[in-house]
Amino acid sequence: MNTIFDALWVEERPDGSFRRTIVQRATADLPPGDLLIRVHYSSLNYKDALSAAGNRGVTRAYPHTPGIDAAGVVVESAVDEFKAGDEVIVIGYDLGMNTPGGFGGYIRVPAGWVVRRPTGLTLRESMAIGTAGFTAAQCVDALMQHGVDSGEVLVTGATGGVGSIAVALLSKLGMTVIAATGKPAAAGYLHSLGATAVVARDEVDDRSGKPLLRERWAGVVDTVGGNMLATALKATRYGGAVAACGHVASPSLELTVYPFILRGVTLLGIDSVNLPIAARRALWARLAGAWKLDVLAQIARDVALAELNPEIDAILRGQQQGRVVLVHPTL
What we know:
2 domains; seven-stranded mixed beta sheet; six-stranded parallel beta sheet
């Protein structure tokens, strides 16, 4: 089988700049793998935007097709575990980083990267969640395993993909959610997802230099990193925990050890890229069942491949709200 399909193509110009175009590719051009999957949906994450902008910390070699998320139907299988016609989800591992990703109509990947679509989620709903929402669920799961089940829980970068799902999921689970954002106009959106209160970004970005702040947070989902993460740690209550999953502000963390040795605060590092497949399947099952969100329609909106470029620019400028789902033609 050799099928032609459309794909976003990121290539480097002679002057070192990068351009994005839509090109036709062939399934014969895809790398070897156990499964050939026709992609019905993908979604836009910050890492995709970095890859699409030529960031070699994400993607080493160009030209390249980004898309770290994909949901679709198996077309060809070289393993017994999957067969043609199976509906599947692929997020993480090397998809969309150095392996052609979900911004193309087909992907070919190892079977060990693939999760069968759980009953309770459609393919489109799985991409409304995508890597961003899955990461948010990991953060919430880590906080709950630590014992955070009451008190105020702070979510930073709350209007983004991770933040939006985190706010909605924490609220569904009965938490008191405080959503921090630099977008005052988004307060209504955050309240609609279940935020108890919305605070300005400056209120959780302390610049005083104090080693500790007044105890407030039972737990934190931090999507931003940098000084905001440091501020969150310094204001977390005794025995509380902070789940850190992003570094859009900065990868640096400058603070004393006092939150850890005087208040027993725990910093939980969250990685969705290399999470073992068994844990991945279990969390997807929860997102399709007890943790299924009824506000996904408010969080996610659909775009076609031809509409993706401005969305990439918007997420790089920090202007994206919620989730963007890429819809591929399925005729």
